[in-house]
Amino acid sequence: MMGISVYPTGTVRYNPDKTWSGYTLFNASDVGAVLIDMSGKVVHEWKDFQGFPNKMVPGGKIFGSLRCRDRYAAYQDYADLTEVDFDGKTIWSFNHNQEVTDEDVGKGWVARQHHDYQIEGNPVGYYVPGQESKDNFNKVLLLTHNNVKKAKISPQSLLEDVLLEVDRSGKELWSWHIMDHFREFHLDNIAKNAMFRDPNTQQSGKDGEGDIFHVNCASYLGPNHWYDEGDERFNPNNIIMDSREANIMWIVDHESGKIVWQIGPDYTTTLALRMLGPLVGMHHSHMIPKGLPGAGNIMVFNNGGWAGYGLPDQTSKTGMKTARVDTSKVIEFNPITLEVVWSFGTADFDSKTPFHEHHFYSPLVSDAQRLPNGNTLIDEGTEGRFLEVTKDKEVVWEYIYPHVDDYLVYRAYRVPYEWVPQLTKEEPKAITPPAIADFQVPGAENPNFKDDVTVSVPGTAGYGKGSAFCVDKL
């Protein structure tokens, strides 16, 4: 955590007066779907029910997958998208996208869902007042995979990102294939040559597949004031997506299939783009839904890390992953002017260490959710750290998953208490983090510290071991 190998876990900070309290849902590969309360206590598990990601709808029901395909059969493919109730009973399931033969399970149908999906009634998949996913939905949007050969793009087999809309019976209603729109991204010849040489090969199948774009989000724009004001690019049915590898964010027109709005991969062509700054390895790009503070702005977890295609250089032999930024930032910006409206990064979390950019850094996974009170829930996924941050950038809730060394937390979602009537709402108890300078590991030979003083973060109820920690106090 933050370059430190030993640290407290569970909820280490909680100010009930300033949070939008509820339950937090996330997926942990060592358990399945996990639901925690604000104190960090695990209040429910859906054992072995995976999710890419898991999402909840009212009534304590969640979506996810019963089976992830073996990575050597298909890279990051899930065999199904399934809805289960609070007790894990299957309500609905879809897998009838492609028929495949996998060595581990044999021949059968799979959904090939990856990274995202949206249920009718809610454009983004997290809590939006007045836009709850329908209990008896009739339409689902899935982000899926397909295998294609496109010799002009690369001689290697390619992993294609496909948007797929199906009805409740599994019938296909609409689809969109990214490779059909390759030219619309206006990639320069340098980038295309780099893609041709190295299309981000992943070890799936016999010879691997080129995951050129690696799309990790797809959500409807939903009702928004831009469209109400006459801008057709922001039709509520249009879909916003991003490419983690190519550093591009775009909007697909649902009716025509064309890309009608795009930023990246070059963030130097206009003053507005230079002021926005490069989006590198980004995740969870979405338009903040109507009914939430900041509605109509776009929010993204700008991971940093390594991504992009360009000229080979000292750090990139092939011209892949040429953009490198060693810090992360959550950014909210105006999609018309590209002006940054709000952001949160290292300097905001710990102003005493502005040069320690790794203090807030998740080069993979992660997401951000706007809450009804204007706060933002952030999942710093490679660290397993969840933060709730106010508009004024005060951290009012902080949770650290105890077993993050074994798994990255892809996304985390806050849901209201009333969505889970099977549980009894907790009584809020504030948790104040200890002052780091006041504590030392027991037995450390420092004359300024007293021996045999054991303390823990007040009120902490973590998951498994590690929620309390023994230290010496000055």
What would you say this structure looks like, in words?
This protein has a domain at 58-360. 5% of the residues lie in helices and 36% in strands. The protein contains 4 helices and 33 strands. The strands form 10 sheets. The protein has a 5-stranded antiparallel sheet with strand order 1-30-29-28-27, with no helix packed on it. It has a 4-stranded antiparallel sheet with strand order 4-3-2-31, with no helix packed on it. The model is unreliable at 451-457 and 460-474 (pLDDT under 50). The chain starts with 9 loop residues before the first strand and ends with a strand. With 474 residues, it is mostly beta strands.
Q: Descriptors for this entry?
A:
474 residues; 4-stranded antiparallel β-sheet; 5-stranded antiparallel β-sheet; 4 helices; mainly beta
Write the layout of secondary structure elements.
Blueprint: E1 10-14, E2 23-28, E3 32-36, E4 42-47, E5 50-57, E6 61-65, E7 81-84, E8 90-94, E9 98-102, E10 106-110, E11 113-119, E12 139-148, E13 158-167, E14 172-177, H1 189-197, E15 201-202, E16 209-210, E17 215-220, H2 225-228, E18 239-243, E19 248-252, E20 259-263, H3 271-276, E21 283-287, E22 298-302, E23 305-309, E24 320-325, E25 329-333, E26 340-345, H4 346-349, E27 367-370, E28 376-380, E29 385-389, E30 395-400, E31 412-415, E32 439-440, E33 472-473
Antiparallel strand pairs: 1-30, 2-3, 2-31, 3-4, 5-6, 6-7, 7-8, 9-10, 11-12, 12-13, 13-14, 15-16, 17-18, 18-19, 19-20, 21-22, 22-25, 23-24, 25-26, 27-28, 28-29, 29-30, 32-33
